[in-house]
Design brief:
Number of strands: 14
CATH architecture of the largest domain: 2-Layer Sandwich
CATH class of the largest domain: Alpha Beta
Number of helices: 3
Number of domains: 2
Radius of gyration: 22 Å
CATH superfamily of the largest domain: NusG, N-terminal domain
Order of helices and strands: EHEEEEHEEEEHEEEEE
Largest sheet: 5 strands, antiparallel
Helix content: 10-25%
CATH topology of the largest domain: Alpha-Beta Plaits
Length: about 160
Amino acid sequence: MTWYVLQHKPAQGDRALHNLQNQEVPCFYPKIEVEKVRAGKRVKKLEPLFPGYIFINLEQTDPVWAKLRSTLGVLRVVSFAGKPAAIDDAVIQQIKASMEKVAAQGGIKKGQKVELEDGPFKGINAIFQAYDGEERAIVLITFMQKQQTVKVPISTLKP
């Protein structure tokens, strides 16, 4: 069987997935947990890795192809020159492996030792304290024989 891509209607990815699974179509709808700041608070939310798209695993001769376009939530089959765009199985396996790796890592935790890779504190070891919005982090560094709290861009931290 080969993997193909379906485009789903806006905000109907879960609906399309549910209806495809009811038709016993093997699907892959990768989601990742992201942290967003809402009303000044950091909230974790599952979001699609590829917004607007669902991967399906079918044979070209499968009779389900005729029903795909009329499935609730599905907009169209992604195709080029009138032929559905096939995706190599190795690509899907790589996406799955990467998602497992990211899930296992789980981000930087409070108390974890990090190194600052850029900016005025480049090369200094620090202890992660908390996130400060979406772009910055609060870390604890030892500077002039005192522990100081410093706000730095998240991109400068190396676990």
